[in-house]
Design goal:
The protein is an alpha/beta fold. It has a single domain, classed as 2-Layer Sandwich (Transcription Regulator spoIIAA). The chain has five helices and four strands; from the N terminus they run ββαβαβααα. Strands 1-2-3-4 form a four-stranded mixed β-sheet, covered by helices on one side. α2 links the parallel β3 and β4. α1 runs parallel beside α2. The radius of gyration is 14 Å and the shape is globular. Pfam families: STAS_2. InterPro entries: MlaB-like_STAS, MlaB_ABC_Transporter, STAS_dom, STAS_dom_sf. This is Anti-anti-sigma factor.
Amino acid sequence: MTTLSSDFPAPLTLALEGEMTIRRAAELKPLLQPALAHPGGLHLDLGAVSEIDTTGLQLLLATKQAIQADGRPFSLTDSSRAVVDVIELLGLLEALYPHAVASLDARLH
């Protein structure tokens, strides 16, 4: 199940669940389309995502890039362990969680 909520002009909140893999790419892309046009940006909740592969990450990064290209906010509000593990493995923590990485760096120095 996918949940959408919005309080204009606040960011759209989109919660995805299940797999974000090549098998579901054709299904997921249209779910993200409303966020690309939403003037308030996107808060994406991946807390119920059970698996993500490189296709899912490409879709995630392309969505982030398209939204931020004109200054709208994009953030991941929650991520499952499966998502975080793949993001860490591929060295994408800073790209997808810049505030968390900056906060951690500040605490370490």
